[in-house]
């Protein structure tokens, strides 16, 4: 039996002093930029330092949301030694930047929803931990009446669904955790500037899912 122990996963949200409105206000002035560049080496065959660490390091240091450029600059700064030890061609770096820029909206969406969950006070506690995310495939963890619920966040698209299934195969599940799938749809109610975020309807759906599993 493999059980989740919260002592192994400190809650990063305890150090985030932002609320969902702070995130929403910041996003209104941001325009998403994407590059029509994909490189099979960058996408599948090469291993790079993970993006996630730099995203949350920026948030914890600045207590604000990074733009795509600020995220990229933070990533390069955090991994200066690693990149200096590589001899990467310009086309690889451009493709890596394009990949990071594509990843950025999902990190923003997950952060916003975690804060939304924390503020709604419908559940016992809301936990985000990078180790849980990267190594256990848990995007956000909810505790409710001594039970654990792992909420999997992704967009309701074929590519995201395939990615979700691949992520599932990489991780073994905890025996004492209920797993809930919560895709976000590209509907007007979820649109916020250039971003699609989880709406209050997602909270209602999540509460129903948890009630069914209790």
Give the SSE layout.
Layout: H1 20-28, H2 40-45, H3 52-62, H4 68-78, H5 80-84, H6 90-120, E1 125-127, H7 130-136, E2 140-144, E3 147-155, H8 158-170, E4 177-184, E5 191-192, E6 195-196, H9 200-213
Parallel strand pairs: 3-4
Antiparallel strand pairs: 1-2, 2-3, 5-6
Characterize this entry briefly.
The protein has one domain. It has nine helices and six strands; from the N terminus they run ααααααβαββαβββα. It has helices at residues 20-28, 40-45, 52-62, 68-78, 80-84, 90-120, 130-136, 158-170, 200-213; strands at residues 125-127, 140-144, 147-155, 177-184, 191-192, 195-196.
Description:
This protein is of the alpha+beta class. It has helices spanning 20-28, 40-45, 52-62, 68-78, 80-84, 90-120, 130-136, 158-170, 200-213; strands at residues 125-127, 140-144, 147-155, 177-184, 191-192, 195-196. It has one domain. 50% of the residues lie in helices and 14% in strands. β5 and β6 form a beta hairpin. The radius of gyration is 18 Å and the shape is globular. The model has no long low-confidence stretch (mean pLDDT 91).
């Amino acid at each position: 039996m493999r059980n989740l122990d919260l002592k192994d996963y400190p809650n990063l949200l305890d150090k985030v002093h932002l609320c969902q409105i702070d995130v929403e206000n910041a996003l209104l002035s941001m325009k998403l930029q994407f590059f029509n560049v994909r490189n099979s080496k960058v996408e599948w065959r090469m291993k790079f330092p993970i993006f996630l660490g730099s995203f949350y390091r920026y948030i914890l240091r600045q207590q604000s949301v990074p733009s795509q450029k600020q995220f990229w600059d933070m990533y390069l700064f955090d991994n200066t030694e690693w990149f200096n030890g590589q001899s990467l061609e310009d086309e690889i770096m451009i493709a890596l930047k394009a990949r990071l820029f594509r990843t950025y909206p999902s990190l923003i969406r997950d952060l916003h929803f975690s804060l939304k969950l924390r503020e709604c006070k419908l559940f016992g506690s809301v936990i985000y931990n990078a180790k849980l995310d990267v190594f256990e495939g848990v995007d956000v963890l909810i505790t409710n009446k001594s039970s654990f619920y792992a909420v999997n966040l992704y967009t309701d698209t074929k590519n995201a669904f395939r990615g979700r299934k691949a992520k599932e195969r990489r991780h073994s599940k905890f025996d004492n955790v209920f797993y809930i799938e919560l895709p976000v749809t590209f509907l007007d109610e979820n649109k916020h500037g250039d971003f699609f975020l989880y709406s209050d309807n997602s909270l209602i759906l999540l509460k129903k899912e948890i009630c069914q599993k209790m």
